[in-house]
Amino acid sequence: MTNFLNQSAAIWPWLLFLGLIGIVLVIDLGVLNRHAKPVSPKRALIATGVFVLMALAFTAAVYWIYDTKWMQMGLTERGGLPMTGQRAAEEFLTGWMLEYSLSVDNLFVFTLIFGHFRVPLEYQHRVLFWGILGALVMRGLMIAAGAALIATFHWMIYLFGAFLIYTAFKMLSSKDEEAELESMFIVRVARKLFPISPVYDGSNFFTRLNTGARAATPLFLVLLTVEVTDVVFAVDSIPAIFGVTQEPFIVFTSNVFAIMGLRSLYFALAGMMDKFRFLKISLSGVLAFVGVKMLIHSWVPINGAVSLGVIALTLTAGIVASLLIPAAAARPPADQKH
Questions:
Q1: DSSP type of residue 167
Q2: Rounded (5°) CA angle 40-45-46
Q3: Which residue intervals of 117-182 are DSSP H helices?
Q4: Quick check: 238 and 139 in contact, CB under 8 A?
Q5: Mean pLDDT, to the nearest integer, of 299-309?
Q6: What are 94-107's pLDDT values in tens digits?
Q7: Which of 271, 216, 217 shows the shortest CA–CA distance to 42?
Q8: Of the candidates 307, 279, 221, which has an alpha carbon nearest to the alpha carbon of residue 103?
Q9: Alpha carbon distance 128, 222 (integer Å)
């Protein structure tokens, strides 16, 4: 009986949260965006602000959830320390900020994908909606797998830490490459499995050709590409969140809020993402910090407030530097005659 009560105590926040997210998704697609139309920057900024406020409000909800006796019956100890409301709120806020910032890299890829496939502006919201819905499912599975691995093999936390440091150096040294999207494995497989319509059919993912055969539209290829790129980025971001917290509920909810706000952030920044030249340096610094934190946590534990401050300052420095330091003026070729 005690085990049942403990399990119930741990399950009820999951049910409430999933219900809340379901309502938000229904309102988003079924009410606010029933018809395909371009998303204006003003509307996108408002939506981004709403998602940020929701995340901040949920921080208070996390504080309350982990301070209730029901939750404490099932989740009192994590990593040898009491999971108090304050600690849980700090970990959620830090995890959300970390995942939201790492997701910014997705925005640059979204721009590349939409430009390559020439996706009309009015259809981009639909692609991102279903792409993010698929990302929620995939990340949920990856989080469950990561939590199970760390719970079973504690040394995995050190492997994750080393991987994040490697990723940070790789991100810092990589150039802004343009991926050959048509050569992606998932695109090649889709072209072999389905006949592909040469033109878009509104916001539909499938259509019928003149022959009567059912075919996928280019919009379906775009959706597949978005899903695959999110999985690739999740390989970096999921280990990073475990450097902040190993509480599954906080890991999942912080990821969900970061992903949910990503779509509106894309439309808000679509025309100015090239201005954030130093953001990649900040992101690599954040990854390196979290990786080091995971490697030394057994000897030098870093609490949530310090982690939150370091991540916030690092990201702010990258954004401010990008806005204040102008790009170097293009130099004429050495052999140009004057």
A1: H
A2: 100
A3: 121-152, 156-173
A4: yes
A5: 81
A6: 999 988 888 777 77
A7: 271
A8: 279
A9: 10
Contact 214, 208 (CB under 8 A): yes
pLDDT tens digits along 214-243: 888 889 988 988 888 788 777 777 888 888
Sorted by sequence, the CB contacts under 8 Å of residue 274 that are 6+ apart come out as: none
Q: What is the pTM of this model?
A: 0.78
> Can you give the residue ranges of every domain in the chain?
2-6+44-177+230-324
- Token pair recorded at residue 260: 């949910």
What element of type H or E holds 78? strand 77-78
Per-residue model confidence (pLDDT) at position 80: 43
Nearest alpha carbon to residue 265 among 32, 39, 35 = 39
For tokens 């309102």, the residue is: 27
Q: Match 């504690």 to its residue by tokens.
A: 154
**Contact 77/151 with Cβ under 8 angstroms?**
no
Instruction: Say which residue the tokens 């706000």 belong to.
Output: 261
At 19, give phi and psi (nearest 5°): -65, -40
CA 279, CA 244: separation in Å to the nearest integer? 21
Token readout for 179 is: 């991926």
